[in-house]
Amino acid sequence: MRGAPLIIQGGMGAGVSGWPLARAVSRLGQLGVVSGTALDAILARRLQCGDPAGHLRRALAHCPASAAAARVLETYFVPGGKPPQQPFRSVPIFTASPTIARQELAMVAGFVEVWLAKEGHAGLVGINFLEKIQLPLLPILYGALLAGVDYVLVGAGIPREIPGALDSLARHEPVSIRLHVEGAGRDDEYRLHFDPRLVLPAAHPPLRRPAFLAIIASSTLALTLAKKATGRVDGFVIEGPTAGGHNAPPRGDPQLNTRGEPVYGDKDVVDLEKIRALGLPFWLAGSYGHPDRLRAARAKGAAGVQVGTAFAFSEESGLAPELKAAVLERARRGQVDVFTDPLASASGFPFKVVTVEGTLSEADVYAHRPRLCDLGYLRSVYKRSDGSLGYRCPAEPVELYVKKGGKPEDAIGRKCLCNGLLATIGLAQRQRTGYVERPLVTAGDEVTRLGHFLHDGKTSYTAREVVQYLLGDGAAVLERS
User: Fold this and answer.
1) What is the spatial distance between Cα 287 and Cα 243, in angstroms, rounded to a whole number?
2) Does the structure show a pLDDT above 50 at 480?
3) Range 357-385 average pLDDT
4) Contacts of 467 (CB under 8 A, 6+ apart)
5) Residues 371, 398: contact at Cβ < 8 Å?
6) How far is 428 from 91, CA to CA, in rounded Å?
7) Position 10 pLDDT exceeds 80
8) CB-based contact 391:95 (threshold 8 Å)
9) Percent of the chain scored above 70 by pLDDT?
10) Residue 459 confidence (pLDDT)
């Protein structure tokens, strides 16, 4: 791996770790990471906002798949931006058999985000995916490779086939991965297919294959991936339950504390000795946003640390400014609260939610939202009685979910993360009923410590300050030219 970094900036939320943040961190000599979640919807909505600074159109002009980029621009770009009260044009929900146009949008979105993060410097840039969001993964991944992405990080699942997919995509070859289908029989074989030639018809030289890091929470999974992955695994990010976003469920019988949060114990502590024995570099994540924790991680044999929360509230992150300011003010006063919600995510994984007024963290705001699934990234694929595939989400209307074979108890407390996270970066949809989607802010437990960046009356801080703090003693950080 080229220049393994000390610090990996977490790939957070949908658009929170967007290209401006990843670019800033990368220019500081560390690994800047863009989130691959919902990149297609984000690109479509930002084009409809008029792309006022012209960044998206500049990236589109450099896309090797020029015809696909032109079609995306023609479909979604609104000169001057759509009227504020007008809903965003919907992006078709991804299925296991997507149209070429839908694959083009996903591929172009992956290219744009990584290309902008890498523009004008020689630093390292990665892209982060949730393995559970399978349907758009391959075309977004291919777009990222076309833009020269250096690292691919995948968590929230068992990404056994992603390393092999990287090998094939780097050669512009057709690729497939196993599709998770609820209710599938032992003899059933469902796969997702992607053919790069459909979106980039002309012949092109092979691409550089990026390094692959699996985000894991157990030494067993690390061993499985190291031995049974379809291609080369280059390292691991070992993420503890204090990290933001989705957390791995606790092992053993589920227990909740008095607040209703999952209880983690000794079984959830990763055996680093077994990780070290694999001989692959690893980074530690989850409350490692402190210079002492970085030194401790290095002493344990880690190549470095992954830090998310401190970067998520920096000036360069994609969080809407008013939400960022509200959380930082609470952090400065020592009054910020994070709840590990066992029910919020349709994925079934615990999900960390920051309490912020006017967001889905509040029971009455959540109750007021009409249940709807119109983005579908966290939908589950299931096998119908006739053998065809169906799609359901426990955050959709309960009667519809049950009609599709879902259990009504599985719908209790589910929040629409897809719409909530897009609202969190200022891209809230106005539904046909007039309802405007409300944000949902996620962060790790380290959010309670962000006040130390706000000394001397400061109300904000930069990614540079985070890197300098982590490296300790105000260490000088040279930007790459």
Assistant:
1) 6
2) no
3) 94
4) 7, 25, 28, 29, 30, 477
5) yes
6) 14
7) yes
8) yes
9) 98
10) 93
Sorted by where each starts, the structural domains of the chain and their CATH numbers stand as 7-320+447-471 (3.20.20)
For 413, counting Cβ atoms within 10 Å of its Cβ (0-12 exposed, 13-18 middle, 19+ buried), the class is: middle
- Give bridge partners of residue 351 from the DSSP assignment: 246, 341
Dihedral sign, Cα of residue 444, residue 309, residue 11, residue 278: negative
> Can you give the pTM of this predicted structure?
0.94
Residue written as token pair 């550089």: 208
**Rounded alpha-carbon distances, angstroms, from residue 82 to 11, 46, 47, 48, 219:** 29, 10, 9, 6, 49
Cα torsion at 138, 143, 146, 151 (round to 10°)? Answer: -70
pLDDT tops 70 at residue 2: no
37: left (phi over 0), alpha (psi -120 to 50) or beta: beta
Closest Cα to residue 313, out of 303, 299, 324, 298?
A: 324
Quote the pLDDT of residue 268.
81
pLDDT, tens only, 382-411: 999 999 999 999 999 999 999 999 999 999
Residue bearing tokens 């469920």: 249
473: helix, coil or strand? coil
CA gap 360, 323 in Å, rounded? 13
- Which tokens is 233 given? 């695994």
Q: Where are the beta strands (DSSP E) in 243-367?
A: 282-285, 304-307, 338-341, 351-354
Tokens of 456: 């001397």
> Structure tokens of 209?
């294959």
Whether residue 254 contacts residue 243, with contact meaning beta carbons closer than 8 Å, is answered with no
Residue 163: strand, helix, or coil:
helix
Q: What is the spatial distance between Cα 264 and Cα 432, in angstroms, rounded to a whole number?
A: 42
Q: Are 419 and 429 in contact (CB under 8 A)?
A: yes
CA-atom Rg of the chain in angstroms: 21
Q: Give the confidence band of 202 by pLDDT, cuts at 50, 70, 90.
A: confident
For 259, counting Cβ atoms within 10 Å of its Cβ (0-12 exposed, 13-18 middle, 19+ buried), the class is: exposed
